[in-house]
Every structure is written in C-alpha cells, then in structure tokens.
Amino acid sequence: MSKKHPIHLERRDPHEGLRLQSPSAGRNSAIIAEQLASILPEHANVLEIASGTGEHAVASCKARRDIMWRPSDPDERSRQSQNAWRTEIPEQMQESLAIDTTKPDWWNGLESYKALFCANMIHIAPWEAALGYAAGAQHLLGSDGVAILYGPFLEGADTALSNLEFDANLKDRNPLWGVRSLDSVKHIFADVGFNLSARIEMPKNNRILVFSHRNG
Ligand SMILES: C[S@@+](CC[C@H](N)C(=O)[O-])C[C@H]1O[C@@H](n2cnc3c(N)ncnc32)[C@H](O)[C@@H]1O
C-alpha cells in the first residue's frame, strides 16, 4: 500500500446500531437489485463476496423474495454492519462469513451455490482477488450456476474517460489496484470453464457481467 494514501473504501456513514450506510450503495443498490432479480435462478442461494455495508444484500433480497443470500467480507466492521442489516430480513439473509478471495482454497467447507455476486471489489484489491473469485466460481457453482460481477472495466478503445481516470487514481493509491480489463476478466473465467453470457450497461459506466458454465 502506498504511504501517501491509506486504503480508502467508499464513504460509509453510521446508521442505526452497527448498520453502516454507503451513499454509493444507497444510489445503486436498487438498480443492481432490479437486474439481479432477472438474472438469478429461481430459489437461488447466493454467496456475495465483499458485501461491504450489506445494503446490496438487503435490496436484492427484497427484490426477490424466493432467494437466500449469504454475505461475506474479510473486514470485521463490514460483517458487523451486514449482520445488523440482516435483522431486517433474517428469513432470507444469513450470517456473514469472513471470506478473503486472495486466500488459498477459501471455498473449503462451504456449501455449493447457484450464484456468486461481487460488486466493486476486484479493482480495489490485488489481481489475486479476481483470480480467487473465478476459482471460487469453479469450486462452488453447479453446472447451472452463475458468477456475477458489478463495477467498472477497461474496454479498450471503448473505455470511458471516467474509468481511465479512476484507474489512474486507484494505481496512485496502491499500485496493486486498478480498474480491470474486461478481456483479462473474461480470460480468468474462461480458464475455469465459464463464458461471459451477459454484459449489462449500468449508470456511470459500470457493468454487470454474468459468467455461466460453458457446458451448463
Ligand atoms: C469498495 S467496497 C465495496 C462494497 C460493496 N460490495 C459495495 O459495492 O458497496 C470493497 C469491499 O471489498 C472488500 N475486500 C477487499 N479485499 C477483498 C478480498 N480480497 N476478498 C474479499 N473482499 C475483499 C473490502 O473489505 C470492502 O468491503
């Protein structure tokens, strides 16, 4: 990590009890949940990686009452917030797990899932975190499972200027961070048997990427 800039997560404000509220999650959780509602298989159990405050979990569960959602985060304060939000929908949202996708075999001991979801993480973590997410998809998803990513991506000549600026800003904070290229992300999923089955344009040059088993 650069000494000049400590790790900056998105802004998070204290809310009721241990709940945290992120203005950015507040702005985009409803539109993400709306898209997830049409992507997630019926009665899906979902493992969310890097759940942050937990607000995407709540919004997504409210948009699809048939799903079960397991949040996670390596950061304890984030997990406390997720568990505090969980009290709003305990029948759908499970206790948060301490998962860091850079750790080897992080999926050991977990049940299998119909979907993995991860928003805004792979650009503020080393590339190994993205590799670990793809490897987790290989180990945890059945043949009809989907791995979903939300965030900004570099898309060659089509990359939005705001994403190029964000990439430079991230790298200045930490040389291991950076907006990831869509092609590299496609490659790491291809290596574990997944194809990009949907690419959805979202506000502010973000994307939802859906990866499905090649032979699913
Ligand atoms: C920018 S926040 C995004 C939070 C939430 N997904 C959202 O979109 O509002 C990034 C989150 O990634 C988590 N994180 C960082 N490195 C990680 C890793 N290697 N594995 C899993 N989560 C990680 C952080 O603790 C933090 O909660």
Order of helical and strand elements? EEHEHEHEHEHHEE
CATH homologous superfamily (4th level) name: Vaccinia Virus protein VP39
How many beta-strand runs?
A: 8
Domains, number: 1
Plain-language structure description:
This protein has 216 residues and is of the alpha/beta class. 34% of the residues lie in helices and 22% in strands. The chain has six helices and eight strands, in the order ββαβαβαβαβααββ. A six-stranded mixed beta sheet has the order 4-3-5-6-8-7, with helices on both faces. A two-stranded antiparallel sheet has the order 1-2. The longest helix has 17 residues. The protein is globular and about 45 Å long. The N terminus is likely disordered. The structure holds S-adenosylmethionine. S-adenosylmethionine binds next to loops.
Based on the model shown, name its key terms:
216 residues; Rossmann fold; 22% strand; binds S-adenosylmethionine; 6 helices; alpha/beta; disordered N terminus; two-stranded antiparallel sheet; 6-stranded mixed sheet
List the helices and strands and how they pair.
Layout: E1 13-14, E2 20-21, H1 23-39, E3 45-49, H2 55-63, E4 68-70, H3 76-86, E5 113-119, H4 127-140, E6 141-152, H5 161-173, H6 182-191, E7 194-202, E8 206-213
Parallel strand pairs: 3-4, 3-5, 5-6
Antiparallel strand pairs: 1-2, 6-8, 7-8
Bound molecules: S-adenosylmethionine.
